Amino acid sequence: MKNNKPQMARREFLENCTRKLPGFFLLFSSLNTANILAANENDDYDHSAHEYAMGVSIHKCIGCGRCADACKRENKVPREGHYYRTWIERYIIPADGEAIVDSPDGGIHGFPEVKTGGDVLRSFFVPKLCNHCANAPCVQVCPVGATYSTEDGVVLVDDTYCVGCRYCIQACPYGARYLHPEKHVADKCTFCYHRITKGLLPACVEVCPTQARIFGEIGKRSSPLNRFARFNDITVLKPALNTKPKVYYAGADGEVR
Amino acid sequence: MQRIPQQLIPLIIMIVAIIGSLITARTLLVPDSFGDLGHYRADNTGEVAALELSYAGAHVCADCHDDISETKRDSHHSGVACESCHGPALAHTEAPDEFIPDAPRGRDGCLLCHGYNPARPSGFPQILPGQHNPTKACLICHAPHDPQLPHTAEDCSACHREISNRKQVSHHSSVACTECHKATDEHRASPRIVRAEKPRKAEVCGNCHARGADSSREIPRIDMDTHGGRYICWDCHYPHFPETNL
Questions:
Q1: CB-CB under 8 Å, B55 with A6
Q2: Is domain A137-186 annotated with CATH 3.30.70.20?
Q3: Are A174 and A126 in contact (CB under 8 A)?
Q4: Which long-range contacts (CB under 8 A, 24 or more apart) does B19-24 make?
Q5: Residue B26's closest chain A neighbor by CA?
């Protein structure tokens, strides 16, 4: 114990640590945040000012498959193979027994007659797509953060970041996801995010000849979705799962799942 | 400045090395903008939004093809977007002469919507492709931008085919639908919203079938006061096929 100076140095060192290290971290994190808005829109689109949703009117759907076709063309989904971002299901409810559900080619080429071998009670079409759940199971399970909910309520897939583990495909209760055969990443409906952010309608809504699909925003009086919700008894698919879907169905009965 | 104690030097080197490698790993592995808005790469939102479009939207077509869009606006196809039949046409709006959109002239395109399918909503105009002029293109008789309703002689039967077929072979074949039902033009335009009126009172049947009714003598008569008791006519007699007993 010759002097007390080294103790002073230790105190100085600790003080320096508390003062300078956070600054060190901040330097690096500021490098990351610098790009926050650089890649985003050059126009004045405000992501946080929207919350998109879709309405589907089952008794208006004629099963022409134009939506599924337009979706493939707009989003460059592979033509061959069973890859669909949106598709149409045909429900055939027999007088007795289980409901028959089919979707040949997603409904793009129409629905050939089906021999059920018994009396048919009723039959109808149900267009399906990603439900853009507010409480999305796919977002929860993604191990790398490649699937996420945007501020405007759309669930997107980051195809440069997805590792193709297929976990989200398993987790989606609506079967809305598939593994892209060329990119080897998960892929699904984006509500045509590249269109809606420019004020256009999603391709499927644009081409629907009977207006069975309604696109709009939640909580906006002027939105067509507001009218849709007022005039119809609306329901969502699999409400018991608490996924809080943002695709609302009108005229869906208990057989639709 | 005092000398740093001997025992601290390896510790400092170690801590600096660990922190340094952590920071290097983080900057190399975690992409820019990751975590800015949540557990994802915020830049991706802009990348997805910047994807290429294919469909232009109907309002764009109307800029040049104003004559067709005006015809279509007042027709039964007013709700059908141009690109529903003609396909994606954004390339056409950018280079009108180089890219010409599809103009389907065969039957296949029309039949996607108008071919008979029992799962379609009743009332939607449909044909049986094998029986409805199988070799002719739809365009020959129907203008796609201004299609016409079925012939008026088929008025009710166009949608209520099953009832009309049954009634045709029954004793009520000569009774017009409008004798008992009131079907307004609104019902024709939106059959599911405005319903056709159905008879509610036995007197409607009594107009022809009551003892003192002013009708043809062959028509069977009943005593309206005693016949049937507390039941109303159609509890037992099916009006579209009265020969049957329910």
A1: no
A2: yes
A3: no
A4: B19/A21, B19/A24, B23/A24, B23/A25, B23/A28
A5: A28
Alpha helices in A150-248 (DSSP H): 167-171, 193-196, 203-207, 224-231
Which chain A residues contact residue B25 at CB under 8 A? none
CB contact under 8 A, A151 and B2: no
The shortest C-alpha distance from A34 to chain B (Å) reads 8
Tokens of A110: 């129409």
Q: Tell me the three state secondary structure of residue B77.
A: coil
**pLDDT tens digits along B78-110:** 999 999 999 999 999 999 999 999 899 999 999
How many Å from the N-terminal Cα to the C-terminal Cα in chain A?
Answer: 80
On whether both B184 and B126 belong to a single domain, the answer is: no
What pLDDT, on the 0 to 100 scale, is given for residue A10? 61
Question: Would you tell me which residues 109-148 of chain B have a C-beta closer than 8 angstroms to some C-beta of chain A?
Answer: 111-113, 115, 117-121, 124
Is the model's pTM score more than 0.80? Answer: no
Helix or strand (DSSP H, E) at A127 = strand A120-129
- Domain that residue B193 falls in: 156-236
